[in-house]
Amino acid sequence: MRISVRRQGGRSTRARSTATTVVVAAALAFTAACGSSDGGSSGSSSDAKGSAGSKIDVDPAAVQETVNKAFQADVKLDSLPDTVQDAFARATLTLPQAKLDKAFECWKGASCTVGNGKVTLGIADGFGQNQWRKFSKMEIILQALTYPEVGKILSTDAQGDLATFQSNVRSLAAQGAKAIVTYDDFGPAALPAFTAASQQGAKIASYVGPVPDAPESAVAAQVHGDTCATGEDMADVATNDLKLSGDVAIFNGTPGNPQGQAWNKCFEDKIKGSGITVGKKLDTNWTPAGVYQAASALVSSGDDAKGIFYDYADPMPQIISAYEKAGKVTPALVTWTSNNGLFKEWQQRQGTDKAFELYFTNGLNWQGRAAVTAVMDLLAGKKVENQMIMPQPFVKAVKGVYDPKRPDDYPGPSVLVPDALISRMLQ
Fold first, then answer.
1. Could you read off the pLDDT of 200-229 as tens digits, one per residue?
2. How far apart are CA 421 and CA 22, in angstroms?
3. Which CATH superfamily groups domain 243-356?
4. Same topology for domains 1-225+365-392 and 243-356, yes or no?
5. How far apart are CA 390 and CA 108, in angstroms?
6. Backbone dihedral region of 285: left (phi > 0), alpha (psi from -120 to 50 degrees) or beta?
7. What is the DSSP track for 202-246?
8. Whole-number Å distance between alpha carbons of 251 and 228
9. Three-class SS state of 263
10. Which of 134, 212, 335, 414 is close enough to 313 for a disulfide, judged by CB 3.0 to 4.6 Å?
11. Per residue in 403-417, pLDDT tens?
């Protein structure tokens, strides 16, 4: 019998787990069990007709499988914020082919009509030019298509320019977008635009990148991880799983970025007294060239780092290149997010004298789905938590994590997009 997934006692649990070393093979096993052809979804196509205020009739066990795939670890559904539980219920629905075709059409363009609903959903991306952002956009679109209230989807890409981003947010509101989902690359600098859009009646939700100090009147909901907790979890991986001692290195993105400053401090506080010390901190600008330069500098410094800790997986193959060019074995790597190219480099070296250990988190793209559910719930008059803090458990890489059918910049196994759509996106 199918039952409606309901909220578990109105919880607002922080829902962070410590650094669990759950093997990827376990995550792949339950993904295969629920059918990889539909990206982990197992509801009937008729279920997708539920509105923001209605119950979604879906098997709780299937929803739990979707959660496990998204996190690549065993995270209990009822430990998550109420809105996120609802988002995963919708993410579990199987959309009919016509909806998938419409999603692809929307994904390729900047504007599309998806039905007769009165709600226009706006997507405001600060930088939509890489594969991770493109998959996040598709996750958002697929989630929006579970709401009959959504009649139109508008998407914008500021290509890294603050003034363009601010203009895009204002433009979405001016075009009637009452629901706006955003990845804010600019932090508090974007607040004037969010405030202006909110004053025009838009509900705004951010995902992955938090908007520090944003009042609820400007950004009604934020879905993101706990930066400090993730730094602490990285320290747990270093001490409990890798059992490191001596020097390790920290790689950061742009110099002085607040994310790096926060997790670095929490990492360093947690390793005190453990026998681990941070020998070097190096900036990379989150680019492949920056990572290669940082890794080369680390090798040439003579600092025998036992591990490198970083908050972005995509450029990390450059660390391996720098070490091997210098004739050295890559140290243990621990990173936020996931990347198929990194998995390839790791897997190719297993069983050789170049092998190294790798820990990573899920790709985080699915958080855009939770942001969609947040704004739709707000428009329906439902209560939504302003800060939805997601756990970000670290996973130990095992053989099979690399997908040879996907390109190197594919975000990895936590993507909830159906396989058939992924193939079309990557053509």
1. 999 999 999 888 889 999 999 999 999 999
2. 28
3. Response regulator (3.40.50.2300)
4. yes
5. 29
6. left
7. -EEEEESS--TT--TTT--EEEEE-HHHHHHHHHHIIIIIS---E
8. 16
9. helix
10. 335
11. 999 999 999 999 999
Question: What is the identity of the amino acid at 411?
Answer: P
Torsion 232-393-250-290 (CA) sign? negative
Domain map of the chain by residue range? 1-225+365-392, 243-356
Closest CA to 79 of 30, 24, 17: 17
Both structure tokens of 29 = 């096993």
**Bridge partners, residue 206, by sequence:** 182, 222
Tell the CATH topology of 1-225+365-392: Rossmann fold (3.40.50)
DSSP conformation class of 117: -
How are strands ordered across the β-sheet holding 119-125?
111-113, 150-157, 119-125, 177-183, 203-207, 221-225, 387-390
Dihedral in degrees, nearest 10, Cα atoms 60, 56, 136, 344: 20
Name the token pair of 104.
Answer: 């692809």
Q: Quick one: 279 exposed, middle or buried, by C-beta within 10 A (0-12, 13-18, 19+)?
A: middle
At 16, the pLDDT band (50, 70, 90 cuts) reads: very low
Judged against a pLDDT cut of 80, whether residue 277 lies above it is answered with: yes
For the cut 80, the answer to whether the pLDDT of residue 295 exceeds it is yes
Closest CA to 239 of 281, 265, 282, 277: 277
- Considering the entire predicted model, what is its pTM? 0.84
Angstrom distance (rounded) from CA 234 to CA 195: 35
Mean pLDDT of 89-107: 97
Q: Kindly report each contact of residues 100-106 with a partner whose C-beta sits within 8 Å and lies 24 or more positions away, as own/partner.
A: 100/418, 100/420, 100/421, 102/145, 103/138, 103/141, 103/142, 103/145, 103/421, 104/421, 104/424, 104/425, 106/141, 106/153, 106/155
CA 98 – CA 140 distance, rounded (Å): 17
Tokens of 82: 């109420």
